[in-house]
Design a protein that fits this description.
By secondary structure, the chain is of the alpha+beta class. The protein has five helices and five strands. The protein folds into two domains: 1-35, no CATH class; 43-174, 2-Layer Sandwich (HIT family, subunit A). It has helices at residues 9-16, 21-35, 43-48, 93-114, 159-174; strands spanning 56-59, 63-67, 77-81, 118-122, 137-143.
Length: 175
C-alpha cells in the first residue's frame, strides 16, 4: 500500500535495511503473530459451542458468564465474549464494551449472592501476564475481609458446591 509520498512501505524497508536485521525482525514478528492466532479448540470455545458443560450464571447475545472450576474464592466467575477473540488486543472496542457491561451488571449481584465485602476484577493478556486460556475473559472474584485468595488456576472445586453457588447467583440476578 503506497504511503502519502507514493512510496510503498516495503520499498522503504528495502532501502533502509541493507543488512538482514530488519527482515529477520519482521519474520520473527510474523511468526509470533501466527503463533498467537485464535485457537478454536480452546476450552472456552468448546463451552460456547456446547461441547463442554459449565456452571452458567448468565448469558446474553454477546457474552456468557459461568463459575470458574478452580475458583480463587466462592463465586469466582468468568465472563467471556462470544466473539472469537484471543485477548484484549483481539477485539473491537464495541465488543469489549459489551463484555464490560456484562461484568458491571454481574459483579454486584455476585458480591451480594456470596456475601462478599468487595470484588476483584482481573483480566490477563498473554502467558507472561498469567493468561492460561487464550479466549478473552474477565474474572469477577468476590473478596471477603480476612479470607485469603486461593492461587490462580489452583485447585478444582467440588462440582456440587459450584452448582449451589451458581444457583445462589442466578437467584440474585432474577430478583
Amino acid at each position: 500500500m503506497p504511503s502519502k509520498a507514493g512510496i510503498h512501505w516495503a520499498q522503504c524497508l528495502a532501502i533502509t535495511c541493507r543488512s538482514g536485521y530488519w527482515i529477520a525482525r519482521l519474520s520473527r514478528a510474523a511468526t509470533r503473530a501466527q503463533q498467537m492466532a485464535y485457537d478454536p479448540d480452546n476450552i472456552f470455545a468448546k463451552i460456547l459451542d456446547g461441547e463442554i458443560p459449565c456452571h452458567k450464571i448468565y448469558e446474553d447475545d454477546d457474552t456468557l458468564a459461568f463459575l470458574d472450576i478452580m475458583p480463587r474464592t466462592e463465586g469466582h466467575a468468568l465472563v467471556i465474549t462470544k466473539k472469537r477473540a484471543r485477548d484484549l488486543f483481539d477485539i473491537k472496542p464495541e465488543g469489549l464494551a459489551k463484555l464490560m457491561a456484562a461484568v458491571q451488571k454481574l459483579a454486584p449481584k455476585i458480591k451480594e449472592a456470596v456475601g462478599a465485602d468487595g470484588v476483584l476484577i482481573q483480566q490477563f493478556n498473554g502467558s507472561a501476564a498469567g493468561q492460561t486460556v487464550f479466549h478473552l475473559h474477565i474474572h469477577i472474584v468476590p473478596v471477603k475481609h480476612g479470607v485469603p485468595l486461593k492461587p490462580h488456576a489452583g485447585i478444582m472445586e467440588d462440582q456440587a458446591r459450584l452448582a449451589i453457588t451458581a444457583e445462589k447467583i442466578r437467584k440474585k440476578l432474577k430478583g
